[in-house]
Amino acid sequence: MFAAVAAIVVAIVGWRLHDMGEFKLLKDHGVVNPRHVTGFIGVEDLQLVNGTLFGSTEDRSWLRLMLPTSVPVDQRLTEMPDGALLRLDPAFLEAVKNGKVTQFSEDNKMVLEGFSGRFHPHGIFVHELTRDEAAAYPDSPAFLVAAINNKPGERGVELFTWKDTTSNTLKHIGTIAHPLFRWLNDITLVSAGEMYATNWLYETPGTFPSLIESLAKKPVNYVLQCTFNPTTAGNVDCKIVVDKQRMPNGIQFLRASNEIAVVESLAHTITVYSRHDADGSLSVKRVFDTDSACDNLVPLHDGRLLSGCHPKQLTFGFHSAFHTSAPTQVLLLDPSKDADDAAAVQELLLTTTANYSAASVAVPTDTGLLVLGSVNEDGLLVTDAPSNIL
C-alpha cells in the first residue's frame, strides 16, 4: 500500500516538475557581443519611446514568491528603499553600444515632481497624447505615464505627465486606486482615460497561501478595465473583463488591430483578445502556447511581440527567493498567425551563461541593440539585436 501511494506521489511530483519545464534541455543561442549596464537592481519593465528607453527599477527582495516568511509584506516594503523610473536617452544607448558606458548614474533617474510617499514601481506604460488629449493639461505634454506602485498598505497606479523625451522630469497628477487592485503587475493605456491592468497575485506574497496559489496554478486572478479622469486620476471605475486567470502578467494594447494581448504565466499562454469599444469588454481571438512562464510584452513596429520568459518555472521561483541563477529566454510572437502555426511563436534568444538571470522584458532600440531587463538582477543585459526584429 505504501509503495503504491509513494509511486503516485512521485508521479504527481514528476508531472508537476515536467509541467514547470524543469526537465528541459536548454541550448544557449542569440546573445551576440553581450554588455552589462549595472547600478540599478530590478529593471523589470522597459518601453522605447521615440528612441529613448523608459523603465522602472526596484530592489524586489521583498517579493518572496517561493519563501513564506513571518515578516508581513507591508513591513518588508517599508524597510526596502524606494525604486525609481529611468530615462536612457539615445546618447546613453549609443555609448552603451560602443562600450563607453557600463554603469548607470543618478542622472538616469527621473525627477517625480509633486509626488510624495513611498514608491515601489512594477509595470509601466507611456501613452502618447493626441492633440486634444494634451490640450486638457496646462503645459500640453507629449505623454501620459502610468506606473504601478506597490507601496505599503496600498496598491495603486501613479499617473504623471511627461513634457517630452528630452525632459528628465515627470509631473505627478495623482494616484488611481480601486478595491480590485490587490497585486497589480502590468498596465496598458488605450487612451488618456482608459487602461487595462493585470492582477497577478490574489494572496499576499511571502505567505503560505501565496505559495499554494502559485504551485497549484489556482485560477483566481483577473484582467481589469478601468476608466478615470486623466487630469485628476479620480472618478475611477474598474471592472473585471477576464477572470479565472493563472497569474496574468504582461499586457499590451495592439492599437492597429484594436486588440489586447495578455500573458498568462502559469498557463504558459499568450492570449490575444478582441476589444469592444462600446464597453471595453474582451473576447478571445487566439491563444498561443509558449511552453514557458512568460512575463512582459513589447510590441514591435510591425505588430509582432517580444516577451521575456522563464522556461524553468520552479528554477525562476527559487531565483526570486534566493537569488540563485535562472535561464533567460526571449520569445517572438506573431499575433496575426494562427495559433497552431509553428512560426507563430519562436525562440529568439536563450542563455544560461551570460551572467544574467530571468529576464522579464526585451526591447530593441533604434541603435541596433536588444536590451533585456530582469525582476531581480543588477542592471541590464545588452546584446546585438537580431536583424529579423529591426
Topology at a glance:
Layout: H1 2-19, E1 35-41, E2 43-49, E3 52-57, H2 73-79, E4 84-88, H3 90-97, E5 111-113, E6 121-128, H4 131-134, E7 143-151, E8 154-162, E9 169-176, E10 184-191, E11 194-199, H5 208-215, E12 221-227, E13 237-245, E14 248-254, E15 259-264, E16 269-275, E17 282-289, E18 293-299, E19 305-310, H6 313-322, E20 328-333, E21 345-351, E22 359-364, E23 369-374, E24 378-384
Parallel strand pairs: 5-9
Antiparallel strand pairs: 1-24, 2-3, 3-4, 6-7, 7-8, 8-9, 10-11, 11-12, 12-13, 14-15, 15-16, 16-17, 18-19, 19-20, 20-21, 22-23, 23-24
InterPro entries: 6-blade_b-propeller_TolB-like, Serum_paraoxonase/arylesterase
Organism: Salpingoeca rosetta (strain ATCC 50818 / BSB-021)
Protein name: Arylesterase
Unreliable residue runs: none
The top level CATH class name: Mainly Beta
Whole-number average pLDDT?
A: 93
What structural category do the secondary elements indicate?
mainly beta
The second-level CATH architecture is 6 Propeller
Please indicate the percent range of residues in DSSP E strands (runs of 2 or more). 35-45%
Strand order of the largest sheet: 5-9-8-7-6
CATH T-level fold name:
Neuraminidase
Q: In whole angstroms, how far apart are the ends?
A: 60 Å
SS element count, helices: 6
Structural Rg: 20 Å
CATH homologous superfamily label: TolB, C-terminal domain
Organism: Salpingoeca rosetta (strain ATCC 50818 / BSB-021)
Protein name: Arylesterase
InterPro entries: 6-blade_b-propeller_TolB-like, Serum_paraoxonase/arylesterase
